[in-house]
Design goal:
The protein is α+β, with helices and mostly antiparallel strands and 325 residues long. It has one domain: (Glycosyl)asparaginase (Glutamine Phosphoribosylpyrophosphate, subunit 1, domain 1), CATH 3.60.20. The protein is 29% helix and 24% strand. It is built from 8 helices and 13 strands. Strand 8 and strand 9 form a beta hairpin. Helix 2 packs antiparallel against helix 3, helix 6 packs across helix 8 and helix 7 crosses helix 8. The radius of gyration is 18 Å and the shape is globular.
Length: 325
């Protein structure tokens, strides 16, 4: 049986009840030190955008959309430009967003020509009848085009870094994306954002290029409400890590439920990361690890991860933007 991983965590606290706050993550894995600077630069740019919007009293859902849009276009992350390649050498993108006030959500999965999947997910969340909230592949791309989103060519997202990774993985057919230790530097993360606006409302979103070298059509946790993201009137969460494991335990909704019973967000996150790991100890040498960020309605925030490193950052009113890995 694998040894329980060390869980790192931290807390943030608003100074006042209506203090606007934003937290982001840029993936939880063994991030190479050579890539640290780019991760921090990308998060700082996105957080500055979120800060400016919150100071203009913009709604939390719009702030999540705009923050993640900037993360999607930064090549440091496994989302949008810089996303990993599947076994066919293609990028497939997933994203989801949820409004805590209304429980409305929107999500897309397996898209190849949508420049910013989080923006199309946001548009689906805004659908008045709520009948078309989650679209996949060609259907999602047709919806995007019909709503004014101009498609890009699939190679728009390709980077030299991910092409090199793909060529390495062709020679390693035993690669499993749950492996996070032993110096594994394969990306296994997403980007995500949680926001508490000046009205006290919460929202969460997540966007990803998936896991490297998976079968075409694979969908992980990121676009699934309750797994890769979740928001209600009490708490907003965004997760990252091994998608199949996160899906199996519905990590974000479990953390949110525990917060609703009175646990501090940090305590709830640590407990559920332990549960995730223990649930998947099945003798197959699978290391079910992940990371999560969250905010609650009272201004309590937290981050936690069971991987070697996690890119994370935040801002709250009257404070400075901070990042860490």
């Amino acid at each position: 049986m694998n040894q329980q991983p060390r869980i790192h965590f931290g807390v943030v606290k608003a100074k006042e009840m209506n203090t606007p706050m934003v937290l982001v993550h840029g993936g939880a894995w063994d991030i190479p030190f050579a890539e640290t600077r780019m991760h921090e630069e990308g998060m700082k740019t996105a957080l500055d955008r979120g800060r400016r919007l919150l100071l203009q009293n913009k709604k939390c859902t719009l702030v999540v959309r705009e923050v993640i849009t900037l993360l999607e276009q930064h090549p440091a992350f496994d989302a949008g430009i810089g996303a990993v390649l599947n076994r066919d050498g293609e990028v497939e993108l997933d994203a989801g967003i949820m409004c805590g006030e209304t429980a409305a959500y929107g999500a897309v999965a397996g898209v190849k020509t949508i420049q910013h999947p989080i923006q199309v997910a946001y548009r689906l969340m805004e659908e008045r009848k709520g009948q078309n909230r989650f679209l996949i592949a060609e259907g999602a791309e047709r919806f995007a085009a019909a709503n004014g989103f101009h498609p890009v060519k699939p190679d728009y997202f390709h980077t030299e870094r991910e092409q090199r990774r793909f060529e390495q993985l062709i020679l390693n057919t035993n690669f499993h994306t749950s492996t996070a230790f032993s110096g594994n530097t394969m990306p296994r993360g997403t980007v995500g954002c949680v926001v508490r606006d000046t009205f006290g409302n919460l929202a969460a979103g997540t966007s990803t290029g998936g896991a490297p070298f998976t079968l075409a059509g694979r969908v992980g946790d990121s676009p699934i409400p309750g797994a890769g993201f979740f928001a209600d009137e009490l708490v907003a969460c965004s997760a990252t890590g091994w998608g199949e494991g996160i899906l199996g335990v519905q990590l974000s909704s479990r953390v949110a439920f525990q917060v609703s019973t009175g646990l501090h967000p940090a305590e709830a996150a640590v407990q559920q990361l332990r549960h995730l790991f223990q649930k998947h100890q099945n003798g197959q040498n699978i290391e079910a690890t992940a990371g999560i960020i969250m905010l609650d309605r009272y201004g309590n925030g937290a981050w936690a991860f069971s991987t070697p490193r996690m890119a994370r950052g935040g801002w709250q009113e009257d404070g400075a933007i901070w990042t860490a890995i």
